[in-house]
Design brief:
Helix 4 runs parallel beside helix 7. This protein is mainly alpha-helical and 188 residues long. It has 2 domains: 53 residues, Arc Repressor Mutant, subunit A (Orthogonal Bundle), CATH 1.10.10; 123 residues, Tetracycline Repressor, domain 2, CATH 1.10.357.
Length: 188
């Protein structure tokens, strides 16, 4: 089996380390060491750590399975629930959080290009949720009194807070609260 390209190795290591340590604590040498490539090869593929982070955000966003929110073969509320269950189930040790939220807290005040990438990631996520909420309203599954766009933004914000609480508590209690309020009170 052929080895992935150095660029892919660096990108994969960058995603992992940005999730584990954050942007500032993940140095270029740490990334290249994790990737198993010489440090000098980093700059053959990425202009800077910030350039790597921009691509890492895109790669991370692709792994969020947002397209599942548009799968019309599954009822909208079930789609939304499955989406958040997928995100929850990726974090069994309560240690990593979400790259969008982590970068929001750590780097967006210091890098306009990364701020715009993070904002775009949140916007895309919210739009996909809003579309599923609107479909749920049309199907009579979700309260018609909710405005889909603000509700979707609320859900992404609530989710990010849930991740922070779960990481602080090291328990799933925050997830239980999120699912109960979202699916037993807010959307129905």
């Amino acid at each position: 089996m052929a080895r992935r390209s150095m660029k892919e190795e660096i990108l994969g290591a960058g995603v992992d380390l940005f999730l584990e340590r954050g942007f500032n604590a993940a140095g270029v040498k740490d990334i290249t060491d994790r990737a198993g490539v010489p440090k000098g090869s980093f700059y053959n593929h990425f202009e800077s750590k910030e350039a790597l982070a921009a691509v890492a955000l895109e790669r991370y966003g692709d792994s969020r399975r947002l397209s599942d929110l548009a799968n019309q073969e599954i009822p909208p509320v079930e789609r939304i629930r499955r989406h958040f269950e997928f995100l929850r189930d990726e974090l069994p040790d309560f240690a990593r959080g979400c790259m969008f939220g982590n970068f929001s807290a750590e780097i967006v005040d210091h890098s306009e290009p990364l701020r715009l990438r993070v904002k775009g990631s949140f916007d895309q996520w919210s739009e996909m949720l809003a579309d599923a909420i609107a479909e749920g309203q049309e199907a009579g599954e979700i309260r018609a009194s909710l405005d889909p766009r603000p509700t979707a933004h609320y859900l992404t914000n609530a989710w990010e807070g849930t991740l922070l609480q779960a990481r602080a508590d090291k328990t799933g209690d925050a997830f239980a609260i999120f699912f109960t309020i979202t699916f037993d009170a807010l959307l129905t």
